Amino acid sequence: MIHRIVSLLGFLALSSISIDTAGAQNRGEGRKLYVTYCTACHGEKGKGDGMAAQSFPVKPADHTNGAVMNQLSDKFLTDVISKGGSAVGKSSFMPAWGSSFNERQIRDIVAYLRTIADPPYKRDGNKR
Ligand code: HEC
């Protein structure tokens, strides 16, 4: 009996660990893409202070600013990333990435963006 409970607990622990790492991998993948393709303009830490954007007429937002970023829906973030700034009425200096990345990669980037917001993003607690 005790043996069964122990192995059940072990199983539960293992399965929750694997769920966690799956989530972390997606965000990790998103982070890699962000660091590679986005930081030139959005800055190393996403603060909107990348070298390339310094002379732009419209500066990128601070992606670590939860007060701003948490108001933006997943759909908006997905759209601006895949279709570019001009498609959503923003600066055309924000390129469209829809032909470079697949949907999963863009979802991973959005998942990563959600992890750097301060105050933290709450899926159900924020306006959508
Ligand atoms: C060539 C410079 C450049 C690159 C590279 C770039 N962006 Fe942007 N991005 C911008 C600018 C400029 C804006 C601001 C547009 C506005 O406010 O009108 C912007 C806006 C955004 C926004 C809307 C929030 C905000 O900052 O205003 C998101 C989200 C975003 N970019 C994500 C990304 C992601 C993800 C990548 C990498 C895959 C990326 N960007 C690469 C220049 C860039």
Description of the structure:
By secondary structure, the chain is an all-alpha fold. The protein has one domain (2-116): Cytochrome c-like domain (Cytochrome Bc1 Complex, Chain D, domain 2). The chain contains 5 helices and no strands. The longest helix is centred in the first third of the chain and has 36 residues, at 2-37. It is elongated. The mean pLDDT is 88. The protein binds heme C. Heme C (HEC) is lined by residues 34, 37-38, 40-42, 52-53, 56, 58, 60-61, 77, 80-81, 85, 90-91, 93-95, 97, 109.
User: What's the structural domain tally?
Assistant: 1
Structural class, from helix and strand content?
mainly alpha
Count of individual helical segments: 5
Give the total of beta strands.
Answer: 0
Extract low-pLDDT stretches: none
- Do you know the CATH topology? Cytochrome Bc1 Complex, Chain D, domain 2
Mean pLDDT: 88
CATH class: Mainly Alpha
Shape, principal axes of CA atoms = elongated
Bound chemical compounds: heme C
Kindly summarize this structure in a few lines.
The protein is an all-alpha fold and 128 residues long.
